[in-house]
Amino acid sequence: MPKKNIVIVGAGFGGVFATKKLAKKLKHNSDYQIVLIDKHSYMTYMTEIHEVAAQRVEPEHVKDDLQHLFGREKNVKLVTAEVTSVDHDKQVVSTTRGDIPYEKLVISVGGASNDFGTPGVKEYGYELWSIEDSLRIREAIENNIAAGAAESDPKKRQELLTIAVVGSGFTGAELVGEFIDQRKVLAQTYKLDEDEIKIVMMEAGDMVLKMLSDRSLADRAEKYMTRHGVDIRKNSKVTGVDAESVIFADGSHLPTKNLIWTAGVCAKKVISTWGFQAGHAGRIDVDDYMHAINEDGKTNPNVYVAGDTMNYVSQKTGPVPQTVEGAENAAKAVANNILNDLGKAKEAKTFDQVAKFHGYAVSIGSHYTVAALMGWMNFSGFFASLAKHGINLYFYSQIKSAFAIFHYMLDEFFRTKNGRNPFRGTISHQGNTLWALPLRIFLGVFWMMTALGGLGVHDAAYWQGGLMPFLSILTGAFLLVGIFTWPAAALSIILAIFAWIFNGFDITQLFVIFGSIALMNGAGRNFGVDIALVPLMEKVFGLAWYGKAKSQYDDLKK
Questions:
Q1: What is the spatial distance between Cα 336 and Cα 345, in angstroms, rounded to a whole number?
Q2: Mean pLDDT to the nearest integer, 54-67
Q3: Phi, psi (5° rounding) for residue 319?
């Protein structure tokens, strides 16, 4: 008997959360499988794409391969395709890979940038609502600043060296913050004074970050941006964009070739043809239980909506915000109610019954953040920046991706360039591990001689007989040839600590401990076996645990 499909369209926050929860609860149920459809083979961490656009991190940082996320869930089938239509009567989703029948359907395709029909935005500007958008901005800013540095005509130079961001919401403010950091790097690279690179933020209303209920936090963010040279223009409605400038309602112009539009969010146009009732900004209207409302006004009991695709007014928050927590809360309700439909949950639950909002953190670049958490913690600066990273890591823990957590820590703290992390780069310098080679050889010889009793007066600081000589020889041998250097260095530290405990303090132990710590930064990758072994192990164990990552998936044809 073929399995029944719970089809989830969209691998954004809402789709991934719902898939994870349903996969766990239906793990031992052989009647159903979850089919996750997305046009990409990866999930894009949308709240970090501004970091890609301004070159703080590389594009791979915001892309989590779906096989890495769901490789362990055998009841999840991945399909890389675009949905073209939904047949409500036959309960079939039509995709670019064929038709897929569904027992239950979840629509979570995310949103799109809303330019409100402003002339010239799509032709001459840039939007930020996908990884592709962020890469276009990244390339354009770099190229235009380079061209501006070489341009002698004052008018053309100003156009090329002015970065203009329309919109002062979360996305706009965070992007401006990243440009503040990037400006210093660009100025050094192209031999410019920093103040030659203009950053302008335009807001049609009379306040920035108007979605912040605590206006003191918005004021702090505004002061930070102003203090770092951002020209904030409130009550400046953009009515058009041409090849050389931004046009305002009063007829004035701002010369620029770097216009980024972040002023609005709407539903993706494709869903307008799927037979559902459209609410605010084209989003699908839903009831309290996240059921989609058909275009005839009737509730569809087999179709649910989550994330930026849904239009719902909560008694707790008013209109549900287009945030990660908004998507997560909707996904929780969707998963619970699908399980209830299948007889696997105690009761159906409304959005407000499951919804919990812990707050928000808005980063204005890598060094400054404003945060309001748990309803009472309002703070800004360094600790707020750490809180923002904590929120991101909490999300990864929610989807149970240790792989994503590990790489997030590397990319955001230990591999960042130009001091662009909360610690201003003090923990992220990547030195040449070649200089650790003499230390690695020295400690390798040290442990070999310790085991063989060749240290003279230092032998008393360690021990003879039993397991310890074997561990010492093993540690020394591994360090000498550079194999499993990180575990060998960790074992070196443990052996030194044991010697300290059982034989008393000797200054040699401190040297061994700190020297071993220094070797834990990939010291085996220079003239060592680890240079080939570590990548091989990552490939073999990654393949065994997650499966093979692909550019496209079609698990239903297996």
A1: 7
A2: 95
A3: -55, 125
Mean pLDDT of 494-506: 86
**Selection from 174, 109, 166, 175 nearest residue 137 by Cα:** 175
Total residue count of the chain as it appears in this document: 558
Distance from chain centroid for Cα 48: 5
What pLDDT is recorded for position 465? 52
Specify the pLDDT at position 558: 63
- CA 36 – CA 42 distance, rounded (Å): 11
SS3 (DSSP) at 380:
strand
Place of tokens 């991934």: 16
pLDDT in tens, 393-441: 988 888 777 788 888 999 999 889 999 999 998 888 777 788 899 999 9
| 489, HSE (Cβ side, Cα atoms, 13 Å) | 24
412 close to 389: Cβ distance less than 8 angstroms: yes
DSSP-assigned beta bridge partners for residue 32: 4
pLDDT one-digit tens code per residue, 369-400: 999 998 789 999 999 999 999 999 988 888 77
- For 15, 47, 325, 362, 412, the CA distances from 62, given in Å and listed in that order, are 16, 9, 18, 17, 11
Contacts of 28 (CB under 8 A, 6+ apart): none
Helix (H) or strand (E) holding 160: helix 154-161
Domains along the sequence of the chain with CATH: 4-111+266-356 (3.50.50.60), 121-263 (3.50.50.60), 366-426 (no CATH), 433-525 (no CATH)
What pLDDT is attached to residue 322? 85
CA distance 103 to 91: 7
Q: If DSSP states are collapsed to H, E and C, what string results for 402-446? A: HHHHHHHHHHHHHCCCCCCCCCCCCCCCCCCHHHHHHHHHHHHHH
pTM of this structure: 0.90
- 225-241 as b/e: b if 16+ CB within 10 A: beebebebbeebebeeb
Share of the chain above pLDDT 90, in %: 78
